[in-house]
């Protein structure tokens, strides 16, 4: 099984990524960045690929330039598909299907290793296992918040939902797994990246769904809001349905860490309740650390593993249904 994962040619860009996900921030600043969470479709790559000279007349590599414009096209295509296909009905269906948790049974650590394999297999530019990136985030937070052990574990597990890309989890297309998320059932906020593509989404023309509040009462709480389907919501379902004892702030981080319109642009605050506003403070702290998740700080996995296994034991059952 080979799953192709896009990586920036320019490693300086990597540190600007706010998440393992494709970040809308990168798009708006024209620093187009893909990372380990973003799967580049093979057909897009192969259909546009051509052999270029290594160095142009200015001494720059053509390959970097081409890679950059290819990435821009790929990212835009990604959001076009995402915005057209993520409808209220689609998300309802996915939540129902994946809420059954009948795909696999495994521990949290086994899932870390599974995700590790996938990214390792597929990523020619990633010179460290994916688990190190998860641990880099976790260890960075641990250093600054030594007493918040729940936050260390949250950092470790927040991206595990990306296993949705694997055939054994249904092999979902990238637009249903990664990228920024947004609410359904109410108007698409202008701050959502590549907003123009929503015009081809049936919900855009549905008068029940295309007003500011749509189907939701004022300050109803995000828990009652349907958010576009991806690795965030899936991992939230897995954690909650398996009876995790992690605090609500942890579940909030897992569930909304790709919800950039909320935590970066401040959109949709009219749907938040008091608890959401409290939890948002932790999400903003978390996101700062996720930014550095691809730093070059090497982590000795075997050395820190016992600590994280003890946290997993504290907050999760030995085996989870996925
Ligand atoms: Fe992440
Ligand atoms: Fe993520």
TrEMBL record:
<feature type="binding site">
    <location>
        <position position="158"/>
    </location>
    <ligand>
        <name>Fe cation</name>
    </ligand>
</feature>
<keyword id="KW-0060">Ascorbate biosynthesis</keyword>
<feature type="binding site">
    <location>
        <begin position="257"/>
        <end position="258"/>
    </location>
    <ligand>
        <name>substrate</name>
    </ligand>
</feature>
<dbReference type="GO" id="GO:0005506">
    <property type="term" value="F:iron ion binding"/>
</dbReference>
<feature type="binding site">
    <location>
        <position position="231"/>
    </location>
    <ligand>
        <name>Fe cation</name>
    </ligand>
</feature>
<dbReference type="GO" id="GO:0005737">
    <property type="term" value="C:cytoplasm"/>
</dbReference>
<comment type="similarity">
    <text>Belongs to the myo-inositol oxygenase family.</text>
</comment>
<feature type="binding site">
    <location>
        <position position="162"/>
    </location>
    <ligand>
        <name>substrate</name>
    </ligand>
</feature>
<dbReference type="InterPro" id="IPR007828">
    <property type="entry name" value="Inositol_oxygenase"/>
</dbReference>
<protein>
    <recommendedName>
        <fullName>Inositol oxygenase</fullName>
        <ecNumber>1.13.99.1</ecNumber>
    </recommendedName>
</protein>
<dbReference type="GO" id="GO:0050113">
    <property type="term" value="F:inositol oxygenase activity"/>
</dbReference>
<comment type="pathway">
    <text>Polyol metabolism; myo-inositol degradation into D-glucuronate; D-glucuronate from myo-inositol: step 1/1.</text>
</comment>
<feature type="binding site">
    <location>
        <position position="257"/>
    </location>
    <ligand>
        <name>Fe cation</name>
    </ligand>
</feature>
<keyword id="KW-0963">Cytoplasm</keyword>
<dbReference type="GO" id="GO:0019310">
    <property type="term" value="P:inositol catabolic process"/>
</dbReference>
<feature type="binding site">
    <location>
        <position position="133"/>
    </location>
    <ligand>
        <name>Fe cation</name>
    </ligand>
</feature>
<feature type="binding site">
    <location>
        <begin position="179"/>
        <end position="180"/>
    </location>
    <ligand>
        <name>substrate</name>
    </ligand>
</feature>
<feature type="binding site">
    <location>
        <begin position="120"/>
        <end position="122"/>
    </location>
    <ligand>
        <name>substrate</name>
    </ligand>
</feature>
<dbReference type="GO" id="GO:0019853">
    <property type="term" value="P:L-ascorbic acid biosynthetic process"/>
</dbReference>
<feature type="binding site">
    <location>
        <position position="63"/>
    </location>
    <ligand>
        <name>substrate</name>
    </ligand>
</feature>
<dbReference type="Pfam" id="PF05153">
    <property type="entry name" value="MIOX"/>
</dbReference>
<keyword id="KW-0479">Metal-binding</keyword>
<keyword id="KW-0408">Iron</keyword>
<feature type="binding site">
    <location>
        <position position="159"/>
    </location>
    <ligand>
        <name>Fe cation</name>
    </ligand>
</feature>
<feature type="binding site">
    <location>
        <position position="290"/>
    </location>
    <ligand>
        <name>Fe cation</name>
    </ligand>
</feature>
<keyword id="KW-0560">Oxidoreductase</keyword>
């Amino acid at each position: 099984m080979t799953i192709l994962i896009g990586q920036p040619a320019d490693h300086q860009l990597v540190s600007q990524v706010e998440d393992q996900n494709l970040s809308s921030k990168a798009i708006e600043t024209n620093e187009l960045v893909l990372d380990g969470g973003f799967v580049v479709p093979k057909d897009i790559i192969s259909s546009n690929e051509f052999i270029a000279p290594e160095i142009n007349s200015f001494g720059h590599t053509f390959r970097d330039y081409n890679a950059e414009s290819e990435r821009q096209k790929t990212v835009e295509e990604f959001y076009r598909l995402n915005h057209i296909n993520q409808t209220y009905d689609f998300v309802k269906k996915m939540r129902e299907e994946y809420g059954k948790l009948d795909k696999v049974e495994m521990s949290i650590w086994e899932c870390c290793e599974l995700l590790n394999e996938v990214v390792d297999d597929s990523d020619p530019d990633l010179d460290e296992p994916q688990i190190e990136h998860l641990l880099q985030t976790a260890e960075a937070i641990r250093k600054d918040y030594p007493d918040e052990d729940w936050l260390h574990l949250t950092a470790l597990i927040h991206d595990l939902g990306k296993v949705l890309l694997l055939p054994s989890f249904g092999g979902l297309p990238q637009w249903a797994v990664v990228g920024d998320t947004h609410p359904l059932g109410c108007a698409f906020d202008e701050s959502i990246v590549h907003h123009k593509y929503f015009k081809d989404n049936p919900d855009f023309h549905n008068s029940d769904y295309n007003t500011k509040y749509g189907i939701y009462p004022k300050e109803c709480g995000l828990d009652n809001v349907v958010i576009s389907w991806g690795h965030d919501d899936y991992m939230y379902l897995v954690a909650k349905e398996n009876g995790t004892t992690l605090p609500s702030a942890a579940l909030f981080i897992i569930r909304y860490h790709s919800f950039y319109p909320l935590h970066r642009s401040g959109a949709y605050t009219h749907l938040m309740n008091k608890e959401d506003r409290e939890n948002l403070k932790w999400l903003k702290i978390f996101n700062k650390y996720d930014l550095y998740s691809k730093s070059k700080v090497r982590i000795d996995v075997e050395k820190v593993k016992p600590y994280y296994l003890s946290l997993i034991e504290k907050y999760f059952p030995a085996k989870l249904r996925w």
